Amino acid sequence: MAEDGARLGWLGTGRMGFELALRLLNAGHDLAVWNRTRAKAEPLASLGATIVDRPADLADRDIVFTIVSSSEVFTEVLLGAGGLLTVEGAVPSLVVDSSTISSAASAEVRQQAAARDCALLAAPVSGSPKVVRSGRLGVVVSGDRASFERAEPYLRRFGSSVTYVGEGDRARLVKICHNLILAAVTQVLAETTVLAEQAGIDRADYLAFINGSVMGSVFSRYKTPGMVNLDYTPTFTGHLLRKDLELGLEAGRELDVPLPLSAGVHQRIMEMIGNGFGDDDFSRLLEMAARGAGLELVAEGRDDVTDGLTPPVDDLSERRPR
Description:
Blueprint: E1 7-11, H1 15-26, E2 30-34, H2 38-41, E3 50-51, E4 63-66, H3 71-79, E5 94-97, H4 103-114, E6 119-122, E7 125-126, H5 129-134, E8 138-141, H6 145-155, E9 161-164, H7 170-198, H8 203-211, H9 218-229, H10 238-255, H11 260-274, H12 285-292
Helix pairs in contact: 3-4, 7-10, 7-11, 7-12, 8-9, 10-11
């Protein structure tokens, strides 16, 4: 067990939540876990996690981390029947939420939590499960400074960077801004890759040049194998990106900030979903760009194309559940 001895809880073991919880377990922390589909959490028991039946069963934990799919789910698992903050006489002193949700939902939970002497930190993360495993995840955090300092050692287990941006829900807007960039970069990669291929240039060759230039990034590199070999196994689905684009466009309206590029990509994501690809990875934007150009894509079968994320930069993902 880690030296600090804090009893930690975890709500939500989807693709990202599972990997983040695993890093805390591999660091030796005492962790109890809940997930709506219990079977998805149970593999963590082989590494020492306690699996519980309800969010309320984590109410006696010191700090509880949450990462769920939507604002509605976040509100439900904290304030709904059997929710984390509904147990009389027991409440964690700190909730650290890494979900991408609306400020309204966060404010509602923050108010209810404060009434029970429980602080709430917004701590959205940047990256995919594979980025988590590589140790390169980024975290942005907002809320009470003292609560942040208390949570920071655990958040640093998640990856390579933790950035504190101030009080309240500022971190949520930062994450939304991040995902607007994510959408725009993927769309321009899709468009230019199709333009190059229409001229007879292999996708692998075009993307190898981009990745080796000043325009290359961790993101463009780890998306490259999927775009080259047409593997749209989801790391982040079209439905989820649609949600984040709409949260960003809503924030733009509230703050009187024009977002013409984001609005355009939102329409492309809507088109992607309308074509039945909403559950695929959002890099399916490549397919939509190709269709617009009348280009039929074929997987290039390039096994030599790497994502740039291996080997891991630390050892907190080495132990995997049996």
